[in-house]
Amino acid sequence: MLELIGSNIGSILQSTIRLAAPFILAAVGGLFSDMAGVSSIELEAVLLMGAFAGFVGAFFSGSLLLGMLLAMAAGVVICAIYSYLVVGIGARAALVATALVLFATGFSSFFNRALFGVSTDVVSITALPDLRIPFLSDIPFLGPILFQQNLLVYLAFLLVAAQFFFFKRTMIGLEWRSVGENANAADTAGLPVRRYRHIAALLTGAIAGLAGAYLSIASSNVFVEKMSAEKGYAAFAIIILGKYTPVGAMLGCLLYGFADALQLSLQAMGVEVPNQFLLMLPYVFTLVVMCLSGRGNAPEGHGKYFAKK
Fold first, then answer.
1. Residue 205: which domain range?
2. Is residue 184, in this structure, part of any structural domain at all?
3. Is residue 254 part of a domain?
4. In which region does residue 211 sit, left (phi positive, over 0), alpha (psi from -120 to 50) or beta (all else)?
5. Start-to-end CA span in the chain (Å)
6. Between vectors from CA 234 to CA 151 and to CA 37, what angle results, nearest 5°?
7. pLDDT tens string 66-102
8. Gyration radius of the chain's alpha carbons
């Protein structure tokens, strides 16, 4: 089996990057909320609505760009509701997120059937094409892995770098983190705590909405009901796994992507291992690393409601 994996390592690593991209987008989006003290547990609902809105927009307009914009808009709407209830009036984040997931599941299923009907014929679009980077894509071994991906894959990694710079090297990023660490102290210093948290939630919706669009118009060309398949919850766990840092979350997403790519490759190779065992590999990898890495470094004010006095 090791020989089979070794002979296919290039394709496995290329698939790792592709499969990790939606988790990276979701984790980057979620981190903006988490660093401001707002739990990003609503990611599952955002991914599902983003996937549906992105596909519908691309199908009826014929434009993948419009599909991505609609996915971002859908994510913003979901997070605006979440932000109003959690940041605005202090509702419990877990309960609100659960309600939004149920809403997103029902909404996307109902309108998917209303728009496309119920039949064995699969409604599809033209998926986002790969974008070869000149010269770099011709580098032996690394070229196909890193520089023959679609636009959203490149965007995911650029956002990691931008977010790292934002939180570590900008004054606004420092204020953002202070709101998450100690909202009362930030308020005393004159920072608009609630405004920061509302903006953080909306930014989470926009970026995580793109992660949803990735599922329906980049990694595939169809929308199926419950397409997010708990990927939003996995992204939320990966943020904790990465100790609430952009680079740590990215590495956690790559680990998850590698486990997923490995199980798909083993199935394609016909390895005589029960299919159920292969399917659970990504989750086992994540659980093991989380047990080894500890509880993470959440901001002190994470998940705590701030009431302006």
1. 22-114+131-236
2. yes
3. no
4. alpha
5. 63
6. 95
7. 999 999 999 999 999 999 999 999 999 999 999 999 9
8. 20
